[in-house]
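Morning, I've got a small favour to ask if you have a moment. I owe you a coffee for this, so here goes:
>
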Amino acid sequence: MTTLTKTVILDDQGKSVSFSREEFAALVGQAAAGFGRLSLDEYVERVWQLLSRKESVTVEQLHQTAILEGLSYIDEEEPDWTFVCARLYLRQLYREAARQRGYDERERYGDFYSLLVALTEQGVYSPFLLERYTKEEVDAIGAFLDPEKDKLFTYIGLRTLADRYLARDYERRLYELPQERFLVIAMTLMANEPQKRRLALVKEAYWALSNLYMTVATPTLANAGKSYGQLSSCFVDTVDDSLQGIYDSNTDIANLSKSGGGIGVYLGKIRSRGSDIKGFKGVSSGVIPWMKQLNNTAVSVDQLGQRKGAISVYLDVWHKDIFAFLDARLNNGDERLRTHDLFTGVCIPDLFMEQVEQRGDWYLFDPHEVRKVMGFSLEDFYDEEKGRGSFREKYWQCVNEPRLSKEKVPAIDVMKSIMRSQLESG
């Protein structure tokens, strides 16, 4: 089979440049350096055939074709193709960053201090770093940077880092490269350390990050050094049993989700379906409608396009709405009662598991009625010791209180519902 020896490459200015098969083979050889058992000749021939069918291709199309073909070669015999593809993709990242920042792409990385200044002036980086570190310190930190560490990335790891976490301007043009992200994270985390040892700690943190010995929480990876977001992964909130409290919590949860935090929301204080409101019997709609509201928040308030909101909701196993709660993520039934985008969790005391083991009965209560009749909140108690404690004492008080309405169900039925929900929805 005859093949063209040259194809036409369009550079960034749209100029035509001849590009030979030998030059492409040399490019692949550089990307595959150190991986001796790969089928390079076959791969080069396949990619070159694809390129030769077109009158001209851009540099991006050249790399994209090479990467897609390389990914198709990954198997248990030749897993190292993922590193070859990562190195081909790195060339694209180097080109894009160099084009935006005005340096020669063959240098791979530009001046670190200039990057901080440029993105701070654009409002992407917070002024915090330039305020806390002098130019001399930033230059010293920039000297820690080791471009060779980029070769440790697999393709999917590098792609994820580039798509979600590397700093871009407001037009989504790439400025920051992987090792610079690690440096910015290290600087942010060590900014408040004593000045005498701060640079040494930045170097140590960068060493651990760049060698992929450790990573940081997703919001830290995404937001460190930037003018938006925060650095913590997880938050917890308790929703109060009032209209004002419910909507205030939803606003707080939306703001946390916007800034990159996952939220665990305790719903156990909300009165159950059929409870009274201001003395009017049977008018409460229970926890499900408020879960629907949180579900909409999780979907609509994403984290600056990096990932959708992550909200987990928790309810006590003795709450009257527990069965509706456990069904909320199922894929069948009334969609008005489903919240597919929330994660659900059940608060389980030891006493419940004892009743399951003994095939005993379990009682469900309305937390609002417990507070009104008993004068305490059952959810506020726990067993201080194994087999004894304040929770079981208060629970049996509620069971034996004739003024409290309650539902009696076999404990094993509640457990089966938990297991079914977990099996069907993960």
Notes: Residues 4 and 52 are 6 Å apart (CA to CA). The chain has two domains: 104-154+167-231, 234-425.
